[in-house]
Amino acid sequence: MEVRFRCLEGKNVLSTYVDMENRRILIGTLDAGLYSRSLEMEDLQKLPLPITKPIRSIVSYTLDKIAVGVDLEGVFVIDKANLTIDKQYAYNETSSTSIFTNNVRGLFVDNQFNLWVATYHGGISFQDSYKLNFDYFQHRTGDSQSIGNDVVNAVLEDSSGNFWFGTNSGVSMLSVHTHTWTHYFNRNISGEKKRDTHHCRRFARTYMGGRILFRCCLHRLEKGRCEKISR
Q: pTM higher than 0.90 for the full model?
């Protein structure tokens, strides 16, 4: 069944989040802000929040908070119950522990409740759930033991706890057991893993621009073992 929201017609929807506890869906748009709709009633409402740029990602952050990744504006932490802003993570040139850039492409919260912020030309800004400050994973030219590119579009965690990053230079995988990087489809990095599957290379060239393509590519990489994808 197709559901159409009249006040969203003509607006570009970039992200959604279903909050089952509060029985609502949140809808992030390109340039029209953040909307909320009850799962039971036709009550679509635009939230009165100072968010004006593309909302790239909405994820559960803690038990009572969500994180909203906004291109050019950083990350907003919003209370799930009352939908008000609790804090904002933004680039601060005087701090070495803020997010590296406000150009957010995607968010991911892992099984340990750590926050991974995928950025445009800033690599990954990583927030440990205990420290709350940000560390960085960034590309180092000529170093295969770094992420393959600083334009990162997607992050996933597999059932073994490894992390996969869709970048503009293919896929990079960080092993949590060996703390080493493995790269796929990146001809500029020596030691990359070769794959001759046509579909894999086609998906890689899309740079994993969305979660569906990233899942599909990992499905190919693992030769059909979809159980490797845990989230």
A: no
Alpha-carbon span 106 to 119, nearest angstrom: 7
Question: In whole angstroms, what separates CA 119 from the centre of its chain?
Answer: 9
The residue type at 39: L
| Residue 177: C-alpha distances to residues 104, 128, 160, 163 (Å) | 28, 18, 9, 11
Return d(Cα 146, Cα 110) in angstroms, integer.
20
Helix-then-strand count for the chain, H and E: 2, 16
Question: pLDDT at position 10, please?
Answer: 76
Residue 11 token pair? 């607006």
Measured on CA atoms in the order 213, 129, 126, 35, is the torsion positive or negative? positive
- Local structure of 59: helix, strand or coil: strand
Among 56-60, 82-86, 197-201, 213-217, name the one with the lowest average pLDDT.
197-201
Reduced to 3 states, what is the DSSP secondary structure of residue 156?
strand
Whether the pLDDT of residue 189 is over 90: the answer is no
Torsion sign (Cα): 103, 150, 58, 88: negative
